[in-house]
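ok trying again, last paste got cut off:
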Amino acid sequence: MKTTFLAILIAAMAATSLAGVSARVYRADEITPLPWADPNIPNVYQDIMVGTRLTIFIESDAPDSLWDGGLCISDEDWIKGFFSGRGYNAMEETYDGSILPAAGELSSAMILLGEAERYFFLSVTHGIIGEWGIVDYRAQAVGKCDVGVYEIGAAGPLPDDFNPDFDDPPPAQAHWLQGLTFHHVLSRDYNDDAAVDFADFALLASQWQGEAPVDPNATASFDLDGDEAVDVADLALFCDYWLERTDIVDPNSDPNAPELEP
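nice, full thing came through this time. structure:
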């Protein structure tokens, strides 16, 4: 089915080119926008901890449109983040839950490259103004991760701000629309319950004034500034993410019991 789906995407090169497609990034609650690091520099977002889940909406401001495209993690950064679709349809190998009503009934969504989960494809049949698709993005390693928004079969040259990191695009002619830049930092959620709280502070305190050899492959560390010691500088960096959540946590009916994992 994957080969069939890609053939459909390539055949769709004659579809209407739509300049009004863009992506919006939210926290896992799908309500809270992820702020830009600098309000004057669009689409470069505030740092997020490794393990954080984001939701990315693909939307359009143009009615009655055919469109094929999606999201692509750059060749350089694909090991730092990955996409997850919603509502997997095993028969068609598509993610029906990632298609929103404004995309049209026959639209489809797919994620490729196996474990890398690097490409999110969206095929829109009769799109109207609104949100066409949704996909989850998860930060999995420290560092910068570039995500490109592209459409397939678009005519004309690439724009001046084309990112050369995306020189290995999905099959068919891909036209750059927008770039999203995420920066992943070490997690402060030491007990992996999707929240930075007193439980994590207690774990940090248990290592206070201790030595902490730097591990370049770590996703969480008590030595947040990398000076091989756990001290007040690390406490300050820990507090930068106080009460931040990396994901949705299910409500807990028993206040004396630990929260359920997401």
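cool. Residues 1-19, 155-159, 161-172 have pLDDT under 50 and may be disordered. The chain has three helices and twelve strands.
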